[in-house]
Structure formats: structure tokens, C-alpha cells
Write a structure and sequence with these properties.
By secondary structure, the protein is an alpha+beta fold. The protein has a domain at 3-119: Jelly Rolls. Helix content is 48%, strand content 22%. The longest helix has 27 residues, at 121-147. The protein is globular. It comes from Sphingobacterium bambusae.
Length: 190
């Protein structure tokens, strides 16, 4: 499936768009290819875009003062990734976004998304739906970190996203769950 079909299907899961509107919408997206370990965003830099994943996997993470990595998000097919605080508030990035695997993405500049939303009410609705979905997911993740033990978090992650097991290195899954690699190995089937 080509990238335009993937994007249109994704948008039309929530809003209707005409062919003319879609032709206008795609003019704002720029296809990009990245290799495993390439960085899309580095902490401390200015952020002007967000990325829609066509294939591959991205990770959003921070590295604390003790040089420990904490994964905030894995972004798979049809997910979005950026440093949204930096993007929306014109701050410097506080997170990194890089490629866990080779990835094909669509880049959307913040100014272009804003222009689209001003001109197309249905796209404003789409981006509001997407933001709301992100808030819900973040709330669920925080509640899981507060209330569930590490093994329960691992089992839920593997149930929801079984493709992560073979796509993402185990030390990154451990960083997402907030456990050591050794602890994670006790949860995995042998």
C-alpha cells in the first residue's frame, strides 16, 4: 500500500474528506526514510515537526542524570511521534526520538498542521481526536506504572502489541517497563 493510501485510511477512520481535500492535505506531508538508530529529534534542539510512522518503529525517550534511559513511547505503524511540549510551546526538546528499526515516516511541520486546521474543519477535528487519544493512552500508561507490577505491565504490553517482542531489543522493552534487562528476562517465555 502506498503512503497516500495509508494516510487517507488513517484520517478517514475519524473524519470524512473529499478527494480535493485529500490532495491538499498530502501536499503538507513529506515522506522520509531513516535507518535503525537514526535520530529524528535530539534533546536540546528546536522541534518543528511531528512524524507519522508508515513502517518500522520509533522510540521516544529521556536519559536521566545517571544516564539511565526511560522509554516514553514506541511508535509503530500509523502512530505519531514528536516532542509535543517543544513542538507546541516553542521550547527546546526534552526528549529524544530515534529509530528502533529502519523506518518510513511522513514529516508534518507544525506550521503546516496549523494551516491545515485553520482551513479544513474536518482536519481540526481529526487532530483533536488524535490528541485526545494520546491523552487517554498517557493516562492509562501512568496508571499502569502506579498500580501494576512489572510482570503485569509486560504481559499487557505483549498482549496489546505482540510485534514489539521481535521488533524491539529487550533492553528497550525493559526501559519502557522501568525494569532491568535481568528482571525482564524472568517474564519472557523460554
Amino acid at each position: 500500500m502506498n503512503w497516500k493510501n495509508i494516510l487517507r485510511e488513517h484520517i478517514e477512520r475519524k473524519v470524512s474528506i473529499s478527494d480535493d481535500q485529500f490532495d491538499y492535505i498530502v501536499s503538507f506531508f513529506r515522506p522520509m526514510s531513516f535507518k535503525k538508530k537514526d535520530k529524528l529529534i535530539t534533546a536540546g534542539e528546536t522541534v518543528q515537526a511531528e512524524y507519522f510512522v508508515l513502517s518500522g518503529c520509533l522510540s521516544t525517550y529521556v536519559v536521566n542524570d545517571e544516564q539511565k534511559m526511560h522509554i516514553l513511547q514506541f511508535a509503530l505503524h500509523t502512530w505519531w511521534a514528536s516532542d509535543y511540549n517543544a513542538l507546541y510551546n516553542n521550547d527546546k526538546a526534552s526528549v529524544h526520538v530515534d529509530c528502533v528499526s529502519d523506518a518510513e515516516v511522513l514529516c508534518l511541520l507544525n506550521e503546516d498542521r496549523e494551516k491545515m486546521c485553520r482551513e479544513l474543519h474536518n482536519m481540526e477535528s481529526f487532530f483533536r481526536w488524535r490528541s485526545n487519544g494520546g491523552y487517554v493512552s498517557l493516562q492509562k500508561r501512568i496508571l499502569s506504572l502506579l498500580n501494576d507490577d512489572a510482570q503485569s505491565r509486560y504481559e499487557e504490553l505483549m498482549q496489546q502489541y505482540p510485534e514489539l517482542y521481535n521488533l524491539v531489543p529487550k533492553h528497550l522493552i525493559a526501559a519502557y517497563l522501568g525494569v532491568s534487562r535481568e528482571t525482564l528476562s524472568r517474564f519472557q517465555p523460554h
